[in-house]
Amino acid sequence: MSGTQPNRPIVIYAAVAANLAIAATKFICAAFTGSSAMLSEAIHSLVDTGNESLLLVGLRLSKKKPDSRHPFGYGKELYFWSLIVAVILFGIGGGMAIYEGVLHVIHPVESGSPIWNYIVLGIAFLFDGISWSIALREFRVEKGSKGFWHAYRSSKDPAIFTVLAEDTADLLGLIIAVLGVFLSHFFHLPVIDGIASILIGFLLAGVGLLLVYESRGLLIGESSEPEVLERINQIVTADPCVERVLDPLTMHFGPDEILLNMEVAFSEGIVTPSLRETIDRLEENIRRQYPNIKHIYIEAASLKESVRK
Questions:
Q1: Cα separations in angstroms, 174 against 11, 126, 203, 290
Q2: Which residues face 301 on adjacent strands?
Q3: N or C terminus: which one in the chain shows less Cβ crowding within 10 Å?
Q4: Helix axes 8-33, 115-143, angle to 10 degrees
């Protein structure tokens, strides 16, 4: 929550630039060589370019100021567009690659010299690797000391983890495409190229399903991590005027916008002016450590109610 924040736009801009250039190169190469795996990779890069452009749209819309219809702001725009990206990756990216591969298996066509395939795939691996390294660097900023998988699952920033997942799929897809091109020429079996395309399609579909699952959770509302809730509890109960905190509740409206609602049992005999000062102090202490908590609602509970609960 606190500390250095990842730079989302640079991650997305780097991915858009890399994938747009790579897609154009792959389409030209596929047209000359007739490689099914190369065409699938070109579709893959084109879909990624569109996806990352949609993430930019979501990022821009999420910055809109709150209004009367959306008093908590538009932070979830980013979550909505990340879900659309995941569906496109699964449906269009994975579906078209599988379709193209099946056609090539049913009607195998001997492709030309593989040299250009290797050159284009090598260039693509270089640019995708650069984009992937930028996304990974920013993801490490976000994850801190957490384990990689735990940080990925708990991340509330789809602009980072979506690009990282897509770039990882890109690199794996390129490896599959190289193997497909090599084996199909080595064994003089063009059907292998089609099988490689199908495998790339299943890879995209799998990554798309993973992103759908993660984006769905964010869109319907996810809480902060248990350690954050525990730390909030410690901050509040450390106040001399607080006896107990009753289950603080949080929900993300965006990567940098969190709602906190909690019932607090204050000390007996506290008067109204002191209660107001205490609540202000609690909010200040919480926001000092967690500036992303933009909305704090504290409800006073009697000690008798807190004991029953």
A1: 20, 11, 11, 41
A2: 265
A3: C
A4: 170
3-state secondary structure of 168: helix
Going residue by residue through the chain (309 aa), what tens digit of pLDDT does each one get? 444 455 567 888 888 888 888 888 888 887 877 776 677 778 778 888 888 899 889 889 988 888 888 888 888 898 999 999 889 888 888 888 898 889 888 988 776 667 888 888 888 899 889 989 988 888 887 766 677 777 777 788 888 888 888 889 889 988 998 998 899 888 888 899 889 989 989 998 999 999 999 888 888 888 888 888 999 999 999 988 888 888 789 999 888 889 999 998 888 777 667 788 888 999 999 999 999 898 999 988 754 444 334
Token pair of 226 as six digits? 């248990």
One-letter amino acid at 293 equals I
Q: Taking the alpha carbons of 277, 279, 284, 289 in that order, is the dihedral positive or negative?
A: positive
Please count the CA atoms within 13 angstroms of the CA of 264 that sit on its side-chain side: 28
DSSP 71: T
Q: Is the pTM of this model over 0.85?
A: no
| DSSP tag of 296 | E
Output the six-digit token pair for 153.
Answer: 């699952």
- C-alpha torsion angle, residues 195, 120, 52, 155 (rounded to 10): 70
Instruction: Look at residues 7, 25, 15 and name the one whose alpha carbon lies nearest to residue 53.
Output: 15
Classify strands 257-266 and 242-254 as parallel, antiparallel or unpaired. Answer: antiparallel
Q: What is the 3-state secondary structure (H, E, C) of 87-110?
A: HHHHHHHHHHHHHHHHHHHHCCCC
Report whether 181 contacts 37 (CB < 8 A). yes
Tokens 């983890």 — which residue? Answer: 161
**Contact between 252 and 258 (Cβ < 8 Å):** yes
Indicate the SS3 state at residue 63.
coil
End-to-end CA distance of the chain: 29
Tell me the two tokens of residue 31.
Answer: 């047209």
Which candidate, 70, 50, 46, places its Cα nearest to that of 58?
50
